[in-house]
Amino acid sequence: MAEPILQTQKLTVTAGTRTLVREANLSIPEKKVFGFIGPSGAGKSTLLKSINRLVELTPNLRVTGQVLFHGKPVYGSGTDPDALRARIGILFQQPVVFPKSIYQNVIFGVKHLGEIPRREWPEAAERALREAALWNEVKDRLKQPALRLSVGQQQRLCLARTLASKPEVVLMDEPTSALDPKSTEAIEELMLRLKEHHTLVVVTHNLRQARKVADELAFVGVRDGVGQVLCTGTAENVLGNTSVSELEDFLCCQ
Ligand SMILES: Nc1ncnc2c1ncn2[C@@H]1O[C@H](COP(=O)(O)OP(=O)(O)OP(=O)(O)O)[C@@H](O)[C@H]1O
């Protein structure tokens, strides 16, 4: 069996004396869609943001345990967090668009990272916008303000900004919950296409979406007052599981 691209080992996140997520052990396969499901507040976003060290930007959170990316520890002095976050990008629930042009929004991360020479930025922007299925809608107005785009287009623009840095992994934190059904479908179709070249890790509240896009799932539930990974496996197995009571309760309330 192929080596997982990402593994978490006893990954634990605490805020002061409170444990938010306890000892998560996950194995995430390459070029698949891996989903996190579970009740609100169980720790899905916290777990997701631990993968590329984004949790470190929240001062009161502390991480123990380890994340391995291609078998190498993500937490440790040998890893540059900015470079890591370019290889493991993230898309949030609400599109975060800067008050700049469409083009400037796409190349924002590329510019900051400085790995792609300036002359190649236009090509990188076009590639990313095509990959995010937005190119045809914006190719004639790249200099226009990005804030004039619809919310669905803004979310694909944010995806293009993430893709412009050529990430191997894209984390998605409820990427469609702010979108209408048509824009939701566009993002779901994109997820299925993107896994040809990328690994996707997606938090979703939506079981229909989990069924449609996820190859594998992890159920994050609350046991003894603490968020824990209580079940993992193929989407079919997790959604059909009847032996974990927290999962059964979750599935029957959806
Ligand atoms: N910086 C923080 N300090 C203290 N507690 C926090 C912090 N961030 C998150 N939490 C708490 O950690 C728990 C898990 O939050 P998280 O956002 O990861 O859950 P979630 O499963 O993603 O929820 P939702 O589905 O509602 O987004 C919640 O109880 C939340 O209040």
Automatic annotation (TrEMBL):
Keyword entries, A-Z: ATP-binding, Nucleotide-binding, Phosphate transport, Transport
Molecular functions (GO terms): ATP binding; ATP hydrolysis activity; phosphate transmembrane transporter activity
Gene Ontology cellular-component annotations: membrane
Keyword Transmembrane: no
GO biological process: phosphate ion transmembrane transport
Entry-linked InterPro entries: AAA+_ATPase, ABC_transporter-like_ATP-bd, ABC_transporter-like_CS, P-loop_NTPase, PstB-like
Domain ABC transporter: 6-251
Protein name, entry field: Phosphate ABC transporter ATP-binding protein (PhoT family)
Lineage: Bacteria, Pseudomonadati, Verrucomicrobiota, Verrucomicrobiia, Verrucomicrobiales
